[in-house]
Amino acid sequence: MIRKKIAHQILPHKHEDGDSHAAHGVSLIALFTYLQIFVLITAGLYIIRVKAPHILGTASFGAGEIIALTNAKRAQNNLGPLSSNSSLSSAAAAKAANMFRENYWAHNSPSGKTPWSFITAAGYRYVFAGENLARDFSDANSVVNAWMDSPSHRSNLLDNNFKEIGVAVDSGKLEGREGVLVVQMFGAGISQVPAAQPIVQASPAPSPATAGQQTAQNLPSSAVSPSPASEISPIPTPTLAPIAVGLNESNQNLPDESTRILATRQFAIAKIASLSIIAFIFLLFVIEVIVVVRSAHLSLRSGIIAHMGLLAFVLLALWYAVGGAII
Amino acid sequence: MAHIFLILGFVVGAVAIVRLRYDNVSQFLVILILCLFYLLWGATYHHIKGDITKKLFLEYLLMAAIAALAGFLVFIR
Predict the structure, then answer these.
(1) Is A321 within 8 Å of B30 when comparing Cβ atoms?
(2) Is A283 on the interface with B (CB under 8 A)?
(3) Is the CB of A28 less than 8 angstroms away from the CB of B55?
(4) B20 vs A182, A247, B30, CA distance in Å?
(5) Which of these, A295, A286, A262, A284, lies nearest to A171 by C-alpha position?
(6) A123 contact partners, CB below 8 Å, separation of at least 6
(7) B6 touches chain A (CB under 8 A)
(8) pLDDT, block means (10 residues), chain B with 77 residues
(9) pTM of this prediction?
């Protein structure tokens, strides 16, 4: 009897009155129950995240790890390491603070500040500069791997023109959500560029009005486009700024202050729970199709192919999901 | 033929999901659009076929809601 009830939960069957029935596991009541489970998990995770985020795990990583991993990727590609530069680090920290303050997720601020304005304000005179941004990752490896997966961010990481780096890792509320923000700034100070580099030839006479904005290009684009390649020039541009002293600093002062990240397991829990429930429903539909195809007295329900298509698509999307974002 | 149109929609959605990796909000929007497409397709297909019932439409609605909520839980949280 119990066996029969369990079988009815997962297998399509015929009742004694002759009516064909789908597995009870995909009945309207069951589907409504799955929906309620999703609502409960979503609400539960949100409440825990707000009230006691440490329950969902904690982690910490800092700028030093990002720089070390960046240099490791460069070494793997036979490129020289980038030196940590305190002016670039200050620029990155100022950019992160500005992003939290003005509440934006983009390379350019709503008030029109470009990444270069932060670099210039920090006193860094450069020939080349670039910026990568990441948010909501819970470890340094994931951040650097995400950048390496994206062609435009990768080209920043592996750009031979860049000689120095500054990174800020900061946490705060951005676009209504608590999270961690990573700002990575690259540069080549004026004194670091070989004489053969066409600094002067490529540039018209420097003027104070234009020097600040013509000095560099970043590869990733602003938030307007999800594709970092659209607004950018892949070729770093020679500077128009007056040749001055590149604020080159030693590699010895790697920033080692770590930022604590809360609720690190929230994404993993959400992903596993969602994948499990969706995969379970998908499996019930697959079983239904197999049983119906093999059985002479059962017929395939209307809409089952469409349901399976939707679930397969969602399964792929969930499986492919990552915990953070980059621009 | 109608099913091929639906599957094509899901394939386009899957390509968009892959291309929009690391942009969680856009990925969620793709899921939301696909859920609406699925719902609309279901209503139209079964209406033309003449077998649409409230129960069947509710089944489509629940499936779309489950898919959208799963997307919200993972991509937006």
Answers:
(1) no
(2) no
(3) yes
(4) 20, 37, 9
(5) A262
(6) A87, A247
(7) yes
(8) 92 95 92 97 94 93 97 90
(9) 0.78
What is the ipTM score, two decimals?
A: 0.97
A111, A102 contact by CB (below 8 A): yes
Phi, psi of A166 (to 5 degrees): -140, 135
How many residues in total does chain A contain? 327
CA dihedral sign of residues A99, A102, A104, A110? negative
Phi–psi pair at A16, nearest 5 degrees: -65, -25
Phi first, then psi, for residue B8 (nearest 5°) are -60, -40
A162, A186 Cβ separation under 8 angstroms: yes
Query: Residues A200, A202, A206, A208: is their CA dihedral positive or negative?
Result: negative
List phi, psi (to 5°) of A61. Answer: -150, 160
* Cβ–Cβ gap A274/B70 under 8 Å: yes
Task: Name the pLDDT band for A54 (thresholds 50, 70, 90).
Answer: confident
